[in-house]
Predict the structure.
Amino acid sequence: MKKIEVVAAIIFHEEQVLCVQRPKNLRPYISEKFEFPGGKIEAGETIEEALHRELQEELNLKTNIKHLFLTVFHQYPDFDLTMHGFICEVESKALTLHEHIHHEWLHLEELHKLDWAAADIPLVDKLMAIKSMDSLGIKGRK
């Protein structure tokens, strides 16, 4: 089975996190599902370099990568996915969608309302169990 390694950004602005929706796809298990933005790691890139590049390409967004949050291993019907999810922070919510069809900024307790891609669900579950924003190493409301 094909193996794919990707990075994903859990992007916070104050106490809200960015959720992006994938476009229609021939693979029904990811078509129009929500995800944390990111993408494939290219040859010769570190995972942090890949994350910066993907966020610039997909969202025209510069982020402050804080730390690795969780690595997820998920088997889809036609490929195995390894996804490194990073906690990130931005100064502004301004972005431009180049690949996604919709985005939302949500508080952690609201994440469950979206239809997530299966590989992103462990990230969502771990985020929803967070009791303190301080534990994520990000700024709270000002």
In short: The radius of gyration is 14 Å.
